[in-house]
Amino acid sequence: MKIVKKIMAAAFVLMALLLIGSTENVSAKQINSAGAAQKAALKKVGSSATVIEVDMDMERGVLFYDVELLKKNKTYTLKYNSKTGALSEYGWEINIKPYSGQSGKLISRSSIQKKALKKVKKAKVLSIHNDYDDGISEYDIKLQKGTKRYELVYNAASGKLLEYKWETVSTKASASNKYISAEKAKSIAQKKAPGATVVKVEYDNDDGMQVYDVSMVEGMYEYDVTINAKTGDIIEFEKDFND
């Protein structure tokens, strides 16, 4: 009987040790130091990358680690949730953008959109606009797929991908279908400035509020309208001379 009791006691001790080990494994998923964040980032990007900077940010009571790395001709940015250890943002940007091919005809919006949807399959296009950065004509495309929002920047002439980024968004916000469409935001803005031509509609997050930023032009004037993406209310309207 004593032997049986000893065996049972040993079994309880073993189970306790296994439970402690399991708890340690769960907590090990957390990233509780800059060194741990750096290690996770190097594992994601590759050990040949050079860590440039590690910063800390507090968002809604949760600590995040921002890691910036350099690998070959790209700068990478990664953001980790210290509580869960999850990667909440990831992106890269080509440091020296190619200037060749800018003198020819620009690629169409539809062609660039196809490229973006091939890169992020089954995503929803939120906005696409053409802009200039350091003398380069670029297409900036924003998409969403599940709980991730993407931003892709392409050379408008060559079609080369210059920047790539994704970030996780609120599950509740992404699951909600109560947000107005980009077309609806465009219509609301045009009612505010009849006769103006919409040149850009961009879905964005403004201090926690989902908004549409609509840019329009009419003759010598340009308009910037910010619309609440949930209610459709205009929360900001600006009219300036078009330089």
Task: Describe this protein's structure.
With about 240 residues, the chain is α+β, with helices and mostly antiparallel strands. It folds into four domains: about 1-30; about 30-95, Roll (Nuclear Transport Factor 2, Chain: A), CATH 3.10.450; about 100-175, Roll (Nuclear Transport Factor 2, Chain: A), CATH 3.10.450; about 175-240, Roll (Nuclear Transport Factor 2, Chain: A). It has five helices and twelve strands. The chain has an eight-stranded antiparallel β-sheet with strand order 1-2-3-4-8-7-6-5, with helices on one face. The chain starts with a helix and ends with a strand. The model is unreliable at about 1-30 (pLDDT under 50).
Outline:
This protein is of the alpha+beta class and 243 residues long. It has helices spanning 2-27, 34-45, 109-119, 171-175, 182-192; strands at residues 50-59, 62-71, 74-81, 87-94, 124-133, 136-145, 148-155, 161-168, 197-206, 209-218, 221-228, 234-241.
